[in-house]
Amino acid sequence: MNFGDYWDIDLIRKYKKPIIYYTDKISEQYLIFFSILREAKAIHDEWEKEYLKGMDFEMADKITRDLIDELGLKPLDIKGNEIHRFAGAMTPQGQQCFYENLIKGLRNKIIIKGRPGTGKSTMVKKVARAALEAGLDVEFYHCAFDPSSIDMIIIPSLSFTMLDGTAPHVFDVNENERVIDMFECIDKNIVKEDEDPIKTIELRYKNKINEAKEVYSLIKNLHDELEKYYIQATDFSEVDALRRRLVDYFISLK
Fold first, then answer.
1. What pTM value is reported for the model?
2. Which ranges constitute the DSSP H helices of 53-107?
3. Are 82 and 132 spatial neighbours (Cβ–Cβ below 8 Å)?
4. 158: closest CA among 110, 101, 111?
5. Which residue, 5, 7, 214, 226, is the most exposed by fewest CB within 10 angstroms?
6. Per-residue pLDDT of the chain (254 residues; tens, 9 = 90+)
7. What is the residue extent of each domain of the chain?
């Protein structure tokens, strides 16, 4: 489907200069935006290292093994299927997450709390792998900021979800929902949250994320300006006719 087929090309040519200006400006700002996010990721890595200094990995492993046993996940010859998605994204308004929509109706929920580097994603991955090896299908929901990290899994056959309920995707816990706090695996004599370097690192990270949001908001405004020229040059009656043809096509597939 080429929506360019519905443009008034003469009108597009008339707006050539502002279209080129806004297109180039958006490209420039995206380079800045992704550069800021890379800096934020590097700061976040520093933050994680501070908590790793006091992490009790044996305790974290035991919590994970106990949970796998509770779920009755025993290896089978058949492997489950895995599906990979995102549960949210960075937007010009900040981080948006759709946990509530995705887990609506699930009976069994485990919300993980903790800090950067306290093993939340590692635990979720281990439970997911155990479920796959037990022949169960698993939905993986990756972190939009760091796709190598898993924010949530859903195991449909168990009506089960396990999710990271910490910022920036805070999840309000009901009294009937189970919480696992990975901060319990941290030696507080080693990791002092109210002192430097953790306090300074946390502030640097928040400032960098806010900087990224401001640039993304500017990109959105520039994109809105660029859209105005294409809106004027688009024959929406043709677009609507295409929409109706697509609806009819999908209905015919039933």
1. 0.87
2. 57-70, 99-103
3. yes
4. 110
5. 5
6. 899 999 999 999 999 999 999 999 999 999 999 999 999 999 999 999 999 999 999 999 999 999 999 999 999 999 999 999 999 998 888 888 999 899 999 999 999 999 999 999 999 999 999 999 999 999 999 998 899 999 999 999 999 999 999 888 777 787 778 999 999 999 999 999 999 999 999 999 999 999 999 999 999 999 999 999 999 999 999 999 999 999 999 999 98
7. 56-185
